[in-house]
């Protein structure tokens, strides 16, 4: 298997996911969008698309012109190819925005460990089932999904952010929180 990974900042890499992928024999191909790399035209060789976080906001297409082709690729991947997708933080927001949802500034930023409440739909969800609720997760965001895309299922919410996790179809997930953390992540983000 081979995963395609979109990165938006050098320190916002797959973190702990890398160890799991290595153990499972999964290769991954990072595309460093902030460094000028573009999504590949041929997506068929990849088994999943993982889109990481970053300091950008989905509406900053004039400042970060690669956001528009990235959202087009996400839309094609999820809607047309119907392939497995996981978006973390900005990747979650890009999924929503790409498919017709809406992302805006949060009324209050979430930075640190916060509880999220899993919805009833999360109890039978392939990604989140078996997790306790509330679930304490690490957050670092000032924007949020404010309207789900059509057909999306809400999987988790918090007091400050109404869409902490969602699923689109049976193959695409977005989580606002950072599940890729390692012991070094926060220090890397500060450098």
Task: Identify the notable features of this structure and list them briefly.
alpha/beta; nine-stranded mixed sheet; 191 residues
Description:
The chain is of the alpha/beta class and 191 residues long. Helices cover 19% and strands 34% of the residues. The chain has a nine-stranded mixed beta sheet with strand order 2-1-3-4-9-8-7-5-6, covered by helices on one side. Helix 2 (67-80) crosses helix 3 (90-98).
SSE blueprint:
Elements: E1 2-7, H1 17-23, E2 27-32, E3 48-51, H2 67-80, E4 85-88, H3 90-98, E5 102-118, E6 135-147, E7 152-157, E8 165-168, E9 172-175, H4 185-190
Parallel strand pairs: 1-2, 1-3, 3-4, 4-9
Antiparallel strand pairs: 5-6, 5-7, 7-8, 8-9
Helix pairs in contact: 2-3
Structural class: alpha/beta
Estimate the global geometry from the Cα principal axes: globular
C-alpha end-to-end distance: 33 Å
What's the total number of strands?
A: 9
Radius of gyration, in Å, reads 15 Å
Strands of the widest sheet, in order across it, are 2-1-3-4-9-8-7-5-6
Helical run tally: 4
- Sheet having the most strands: 9 strands, mixed
Which bin fits the share of residues in helices?
10-25%
> What would the average pLDDT be, to the nearest integer?
92
């Amino acid at each position: 298997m081979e995963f395609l990974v979109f990165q938006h900042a050098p320190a916002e890499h797959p973190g702990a996911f890398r160890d799991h992928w290595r153990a499972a024999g999964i290769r991954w191909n990072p595309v460093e969008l902030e460094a000028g790399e573009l999504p590949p035209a041929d997506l068929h060789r990849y088994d999943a698309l993982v889109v990481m976080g970053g300091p950008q906001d989905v509406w900053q297409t004039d400042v970060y012109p690669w956001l528009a082709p990235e959202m087009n690729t996400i839309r094609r991947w999820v809607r047309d190819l119907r392939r497995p997708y996981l978006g973390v933080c900005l990747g979650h927001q890009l999924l929503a925005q790409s498919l017709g949802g809406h992302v805006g500034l949060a009324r209050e930023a979430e930075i640190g460990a916060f509880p999220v409440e899993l919805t009833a739909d999360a109890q039978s969800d392939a990604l989140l089932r078996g997790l306790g609720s509330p679930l304490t997760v690490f957050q670092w965001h000032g924007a949020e999904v404010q309207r789900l895309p059509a057909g999306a299922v809400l999987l988790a919410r918090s007091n400050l952010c109404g869409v902490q996790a969602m699923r689109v179809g049976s193959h695409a997930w977005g989580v606002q929180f950072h599940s890729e953390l390692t012991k070094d992540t926060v220090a890397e983000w500060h450098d």
